[in-house]
Amino acid sequence: MALQVTDAAVRQQVLSPLESFLVQAPAGSGKTELLTDRILALLGVVERPEEIVAITFTRKAAAEMHARVLGKLQAAMGPEPQAEHARSSWRLARQAMIRNDQKGWKLLQYPARLSIRTIDAFCASLVRSMPWMSELGGMPALCDDAGSHYEAAARSTLELIDEYEPVAQLVAHLDVDLRAARNLIARMLATRDQWLPLFESGTNPALLQTHLCEAIEEDLAYLRQSMPAGWAMQLASPISEASRKRVEQGEHDFEVLASWDGTPFDADMASLPQWQALADFLLTNKEELRKRLDKRQGFPPGSQAKPVLQGWLDAFDNSSAWVNALADIRKAPSGYTPQHLTMLLTLFDVLRLAQAQLLVRFSLHGEVDFIEVAQRALHALGHPDAPSDLLLTLDSAISHLLVDEFQDTSETQIRLLQKLTSGWQQGDGRTLFLVGDPMQSIYRFRKAEVGWFLRVQRYGLGDIPLVPVQLSTNFRSQEAVVEWVNAVFKPLLPQVAHAGLGAIPYTESSAFHAQLDGLGVDVHPVVTSPNGQGRPESPTPAARRTLSLVKEALARRPDSAHPVAILVRARAHLQDVVNELYLNGIPCRAVELVSLRSRPVVNDLVQLARALAHPGDRLAWLSVLRSPVCGLRLNTLHALFGQQAHAAVPDVLSLCFDEAFADQCGIDDDEALRVRHASAVLLDQRNRSGRMPFAAWIETCWQRLGGEKVYFQEADRADAQSLLQLIERLAPYGDLNPVELEQHIERLYAAPRNAEGAGVEVMTIHKSKGLQFDTVILMGLHQGIRRDETPLMRVEMAEGRVLLGPIQQRTAGHVDPLAEYLGRRERKRADYEIDRLLYVAVTRAREALHLIVDVDIDDDGAVKPPTPNSLLGRLWPAIEADTVAQARPDNGFDQGAEEAPDKPAGGLALSEHAGTTISRLPVGCLSTEQAADLPASSFLQSTARDAWVQSNQDEAIAGIVAHGWLEQIGKRGAQAWQALSATDREQVVQRQLLRAGLFDDRVSEAVRVVCETIECTLSSERGRWLLGLADAYREWALLDMDGRVSVIDLAVHNDTGWLVVDYKTGCPVAGESVPGFVARMRSRYQDQMARYRQSIAALDGRPVQTALYFPRADIWISDAESDSC
Fold first, then answer.
1. Cα–Cα distance list, 611 to 103, 618, 640, 999 (Å)
2. Could you report the per-residue pLDDT of 166-182, keeping only the tens digit for each?
3. DSSP 904-965
């Protein structure tokens, strides 16, 4: 089976430039390779490369595709390769280069002629092309998080309650819960692309009734298809007999089955009562198969029909597809009631008003969300029957459209594709090429609608017939992994496709790579500590087991670029294992994954800031004293404060310098030293006047306490700096608001830990899509999945069918069948996506897949079943046997008990007392300073103020002078500097520094910095390139939307966008690594660079890349992570 391409003919077929295709490409099937080959094949026949437009969903995917096409074109200039698959790409690229030479395209010199872009960028380009048609008047700024705008618009809408009757009706419908109303309206604004197109036709009662009946009949057809063979003939006799008895008892709903002759029910609305009566016989109120029948179901004692039906039921289990399908229609509505239609009209009136309020908000702030851009892009294209000039232009310019990740297409994007291809016909020389894998559709939260893949697969898109094809060869995973995935997911995924519910059946893959000995898929049960036993500071069994597997994977593949990844469903599931990796010194890349709030260094600094800001914050003071930087034992804290519950902590600590203090409190000398050490710092009143910035004083106290000795890693220092910069912004001179601080911290991410060298990559499953790793470890499978909250109005819109359901009235005393039916449909879609999320996770593994399974043991030693609403619950039928066998104590399962490190990292020591182990600085590291012995003025002037304020001022002044010289050199050439002797240069620079405000003995150091900056720039290849850019803007002053003037050192542009460079005179401090310096500088200047990007982008909307250039260290830090060195 190894080294066989089972779908070679299909791969060759889809390269035909004359036909349109829809390609289903499962995980690992080489989708990007196929797309790039298709582009090469098209380049061999088009008149201009711009006729080909490829659209994908992420910048990374677009960049990778662009790079691969260029790489293949460059390779075509060389000899033909030996490998068969490489020869095919080479021949296509060779033909494309021949066409390139014939037509004079110069693709390698002008790669921007290859139009490969994201859907977001494509929509933005449409808005920029026709600003008057889009009604945006140009391309406004895009906001990263529009949540505040949605909430403000919702609040403005509710403020009109006295003037607008529909608002009052909505509030009454929600039982006057204004907070709920605001949140519901805001959430509807975040998904308004789903309901904005319905303003004209969405509330047509007859149309809504028709669509609802169609949906229910589609569900009935799915149910009818899912029912077991021979079901009607086997059930008719016992159920008809029981139905007659129930009718006799007054249950007239069962008259529809009283004379059932065994004919299968139809899949129409007229048959709905029969299906619902059947569901009552077969299912309990918990939607499970009945395990017993009695007279309540029409089976009195002695009934001969009872064993017949019970035997039939016992032959199935609750996982059968027909059981779930029958439960879905059990409470289906017969149609919309007048109350439903009235409330829908009210909701549309309120949403119109909210949409108008949002547009006002956008206008006031000069920014929009992407939904607005996409909607205006559609508007700019006009209608297929009345196309705009822009659509006509695109129609003549685009001949071949390729769409990647088609399974993640939303309703809005489908409408965009329909408009772009309106009028295209088979054989007219224009083609559509759609590629995706519906089994990997996991972006419902981004409004992806996987049902469109099934519909286009069956009916095509618009007037374009597409040839549906399917790839099957997996080039990623070894045979053992592929076979396990096939065996597990074929029964797990739905057996029958259902476009409306997003039900995608599994399609098997065949492995290209042979099985590897000793590697495959392994289940690792870890037993959760019973009753919360174990030390709270100790890592979980799952984290310990994961650590062991990571070490094995790194040892097995030490030279791999991606040796091992830990995947979880949500960020919250990662903290234990990330900390464990950090403590064990394992390189870990978890960028923008771990919250800054989760870092111990940040927690301790936050408590220090709160304590210094308010002497009455008792919890903060005690937290600081207990933290590793102070390290007081619990019994010491109790001795000091246990009997003084109402005394301020600073008042108690002020007594610690008395000689009899230790004896009076009953603490030993070491603990007394720690108390005095902490008190000398925390009670220092020398910054009471606020002369020093509050953040600077916090940093000073932190250093004196020994915080940098406890948290000595570069990532710790970067996290500490991030927090201090946040405090500097929020409370420059004190008056810290703890609530505001906490809110801002939640939005920040921690710096990566030990990120140098190959190591473990930690990410969510969603982030891992499109990636691959030698070993994959899945964690947190047992965690329950939170269901989506009920929206103000449920909206389903697909293929012209609209289903709408208003939120149920708060005071209603019964379940609304319509709300229940639409809610079940949404939950079904969510469940199907959970299964697909699992598929994405397991298909990232190339060689080995490890499942960490957290289980609970009951009092009898048996493994408890997992929560059904979890990834583990979905996998449980496939791995239950292995899990139970390994988790039983008599099988010698060790519960993941691996020894923790003997010593903590850094300068900490372990201290055991009364059964509790704490980490803290050794006594020898503590100073014995007395607060009263330190004169205020000398300390402020010689240490902290120099460190925090003066050094920054000196650097800024030196930077101004250096920037001035670099501007002159850029405009007049290097002779402006080199014509001066070394002595003259130093004298000129010294005069400039003095005029700029520098004085005393600091001038000579600043002169050295300026001269060194200029010399290093001139001696660097990158520096000379920057200075030699003839068309660059230098020292360019721009006014941003806030009215601030930004002076940009250098900006240059080309067809693809802008590059903005900011010169910096700094360099790594002694002992600081280059990666550490890069992380620190990136954090320090990220806001400045963002402001530059915003100011430049506002000019013409083109992409903007920013970079920091440090000539003295020859370090270039770009906002592109991979372009920093």
1. 72, 8, 17, 37
2. 999 999 999 999 999 99
3. -STT-EEEEETTEEEEE--GGG-----GGGS-HHHHIIIIIHIIIIIHHHHHHHHHHHHHHH
